Amino acid sequence: MTRFFDGIDPIRYNPDAETDLAYRHYNPDEIVLGKRMEDQLRFAVAYWHSFAWEGGDPFGGRTFERPWYPQDSMKNAKLKADVAFEMFALLGQPFFCFHDADVRPEGDTFAENKRNLEEIVDYFGEKMEATGTKLLWGTANLFTHRRFMSGAATNPDPDVFAYSAATVKSCMDATQKLGGENYVLWGGREGYETLLNTDLVKERQQAGRFLQMVVDYAHKIGFNGTILIEPKPQEPSKHQYDYDVNTVYSFLKEFGLEGEVKMNIEQGHAILAGHSFEHELAMAAAFGILGSIDMNRNDYQSGWDTDQFPNNVPEVALAYYEILKMGGFTTGGTNFDSKLRRQSLDPADLIAGHAGAMDVCARGLKAAAAMLEDGGLETARAERYAGWDDAANKDMLESGTLDGIAERVLAEDINPQPRSGRQERLENYVNRFV
Fold first, then answer.
1. Can you tell me which residues bind Mg(2+) 1 (predicted)?
2. What's 31-374's CATH class?
3. Which of 19, 36, 230, 249 has the fewest Cβ atoms surrounding its Cβ within 10 A?
4. Active-site residue, from 25, 49, 102, 279
């Protein structure tokens, strides 16, 4: 034991608890729409924010003091893993997620990075077997190191493209070895700052070919999980190629990958793209490519990706409504891509942040399930579009022509009058459940 979490007991479901270190709504065994709550939500802890992030922001450096700092040796990487799995045991969540750079020190060469990753993966394997914690997904950090300042797959330097491909292969191998259920590609710098030095067509072709290679390799090694792309607008590149769900889907279609790749959608990224979280989830579900989610929230005044723990039950409920409506998660889950505020220094803060977020998600899930079972939203939606069930209108949409439709309008003296969208009434309906 590391003693990092000394004095903190495992977090249990206790609606009447007087401490903030308890679950008041998250009961893993409660049945929600025919499945255990744990199996509906499939919670995961993000290794990078919880253990690798040091508390810096754009205006200041490290605020946290952790016993595994500096993060530059395998000894400290293993200590960090010891603490991580102790926290997983306290929270009882079923999964975790990581980037390669979160879990191993940076070496002087790719070969050294590969050895370090392989060593920590073996260490993880032992701990996963002992604790039962599983890997929701793995990924590669292709954005932090200065070599990636101009992108990874979209870099103008072929050597960076090659280094990135080799890194992704090593991370896919690690994910496969640990039984990961997904592999995520997050193109943090797959974009550009200025057109003055950018070939848009070439970079898009490079990105498409890179993803085709990833899919081919997944088939080669028999990876049974899901390949996921995470849309990310604006930050850090001014113009990101993976801006939102619609943008990524058009990219997948262009390169023939819409049947191979799904999406990991983050609440904070949806907001940065000018959308709501439920909008992005609904779009992905409509395209058949909703795979997994990163759950967090942004500070709506700051205008950048603050990655705070979720605390807005109505927002979360609408998100899970879209997920449940499509049938729920398969290989995906709810990853807390969320971090403490840089003033929250104590180990107990790390536990409380996750426990509170899990309660918020549990409340949102139950509200979403109740709305879905009640059927009010779907009934209202069906009524609004009921006119399209008429045979003549179906025929108009399927085989109509402009001149033929114009003749019908004249012959039937069609003169439509606006009908209420009933938005306020539907908002009131939602509020009955949250």
1. 230, 266, 294, 337
2. alpha beta
3. 19
4. 102
